[in-house]
Amino acid sequence: MTLRWRLALVFALGTAVVIAAAGLLFLQQLTAGLNSSLASTLRVRAEAEVARLASAGPLPPLAPPPPSESRDSGQQGDQHGQNPVSDDITQVLARDGAVLATTDPAVRQPLVDAAQRRAAGHAPVKFTTTVEGEKYRMLAVPAHHGARPVLVVVGTGSHLAEEATARTSTALWIAGPSAVVLAGLGAYALTGSALRPVERMRRRLADISEHDTAARLPVPRTRDEIATLATTMNAVLDRLARALERERGFVADAGHELRTPLTTLKAELELASRPGRSHQALVDAITAAAADTDRLIRLAEDLLVLARADEGHACLRAGPIAPADVLARGVHAASARAETRGVRLTLHADTTVRIVADPDRLRQAVDNLLDNAVRHSPDGAVIDVTLSTRHGPGADVAVIEVRDHGPGFPPAFLPLAFERFRRADAARARAGGGAGLGLAIVRSIAEAHGGSVVADNPEGGGARVRLEIPLAPAHEQGPAHGEMS
Ligand SMILES: Nc1ncnc2c1ncn2[C@@H]1O[C@H](COP(=O)(O)OP(=O)(O)OP(=O)(O)O)[C@@H](O)[C@H]1O
Ligand SMILES: [Mg+2]
User: Fold this and answer.
1) What residue stretches are annotated with the Histidine kinase domain (predicted)?
2) Closest CA to 120 of 86, 155, 147
């Protein structure tokens, strides 16, 4: 069932319940009010009659009551033949039931039976009776005519009250269902117009394709929930479009980066296949081809790491580790490469620090930082690597810092340093073999571990990159061993 139908139904049902409850309450109040007004009229009439009888003397004749407003005597005659009965009847009865006086010559029989008469001898008695087919409310009270005990019986026709109740209930039966139908139709029409912009948005959304990333939903001018929904959906579309753009850029850049070494490789192989090449030339060509293949493998691996990080699978084997061990191995491996240029690496690491991390991924991040530092260090320079902790209000983190004494990052490049395929000097870096993915990978790995990375040019020159990763919970921290250097 559509939302529209559901709302219409709920509205109709709600209206039905409210009208039924209100109608019942109104009818009940009306009946109670009419009954109490009839009862007080009877009481007043009975009291007047009792007072009249109390004054001793011959039994005064009872005057017939004035004709009622709603029932004239003509109507009475039509309905009940020759002897119309008036709306108000009064009888004076002896205690044995004999009718001593009556206002209505048509009613000569006593209006109370023996049991009611006996009861009325002691206290007033209320009852209803039917006279000539008409319902009457009756009240019988004890009285005295001089010294003689008598009964005063007063009655009044209740047809007016019953008619009023019946008319009201008929009106409710007619008006109630109409109001229910109207409420349902109104709700159906209202929800239809309220949901129209939603339907427009749905159709527009269904039309948007991946090639149409600039398309957005129309935002209604109303400042309501639907306008907010449209704005939020447009913000989501914006984010998706940006992500798609980044993805496409990434694929284009990756293709471009792969083409360069592949082209060189092909040229080298073509050159090697020409006739008359010396043995040495062939060995050189194969060595160069192997170097290009290495570069391709590294690039493919880097792309794989970033793709996995995008899917949220950057660290596969995370566990509590001592980053000092990872740093020691990384520094050892980098030192071997740096030695050829007289570059020296120093390591100051707090061996007690424990983090929850994937050791292979952390090593990859450290290797990328050391690779950059060695590459940018002048011959004979020193690279400082430190591991410490920082306890801040937000988090307690392990801080891995790699600082070299090279030219530092070009200041304008600093905000872009961690983006994919970004190089400060593309031409030179390409010659050196860098694809511009090293720092992007460091950032992915840091973020996958809930950490962060920043780069700057500290006072005194050179470049500095700080990698921060949250410390392992206290119970996983190792015993204090002091510093390794
Ligand atoms: N220690 C550093 N000193 C000065 N510039 C640096 C340093 N580290 C990185 N850069 C600059 O930042 C750029 C991006 O570094 P990144 O490690 O991401 O890429 P890359 O080293 O060029 O290539 P890759 O790491 O993929 O082999 C580098 O090309 C270089 O211009
Ligand atoms: Mg690098």
Assistant:
1) 253-473
2) 155
Residues 5 and 119 both lie in one domain: yes
Instruction: Please check whether residues 188 and 238 belong to one and the same domain.
Output: no
CB of 368 within 6 A of ligand 1: the answer is yes
199 with 327, same domain: the answer is: no
Domain with 237 in it: what CATH number?
A: 1.10.287.130
Which pLDDT value is given to residue 483?
46
Contacts of 344 (CB under 8 A, 6+ apart): 335, 338, 381, 382, 383
- Which of 256, 372, 403 to probe ligand 1 with, by most ligand atoms within 8 A of CB? 372
- Mark 20-43 as b/e (b = at least 16 C-beta within 10 Å): eeebeeeeeeebeebeeebeeebe
Yes or no: say if 164 and 30 are a contact pair by the CB < 8 Å rule: yes
Specify whether 199 is located in the same domain as 233: no
480 falls within a domain: yes
Domain span at 146 = 1-64+84-207
| Lowest-confidence segment of 118-132, 202-216, 233-247 by average pLDDT | 202-216
Q: Are residues 280 and 342 in the same domain?
A: no
| Token couple for 378 | 């002048």
The predicted pLDDT at position 70 comes to 42
Which residue, judged by its Cα, is nearest atom 13 of ligand 1?
Answer: 423
What is the per-residue DSSP string for 340-389? TTT-EEEEEEETT--EEE-HHHHHHHHHHHHHHHHHHSPTT-EEEEEEEE
- If you count them, how many residues does the chain have? 485
For residues 242 and 269, the answer to whether their CB atoms sit within 8 Å is: no
443 is a domain residue: yes
Q: Residue 268: which of 250, 251, 284 has the closest Cα?
A: 284
Predicted confidence band at 327 (pLDDT cuts at 50, 70, 90)? Answer: very high
Task: With respect to residue 218, please indicate whether it lies within any of the assigned structural domains.
Answer: no
Cβ of 462 closer than 6 Å to ligand 1, yes or no, is: no
Q: What does DSSP assign to residue 167?
A: H
Give the model confidence (pLDDT) of 16-40 as tens digits.
999 999 999 999 999 999 999 999 9
Instruction: Looking at the structure, tell me whether residues 347 and 440 fall in a common domain.
Output: yes
423 lines ligand 1 (CB under 6 A): yes
Segments of 42-198 assigned E as strands: 88-94, 99-102, 125-131, 134-145, 148-157
- 421 shares its domain with 273: no
Which secondary-structure segment (H or E) carries 400?
strand 396-403
Residue 310 contacts residue 348 (beta carbons within 8 Å): no
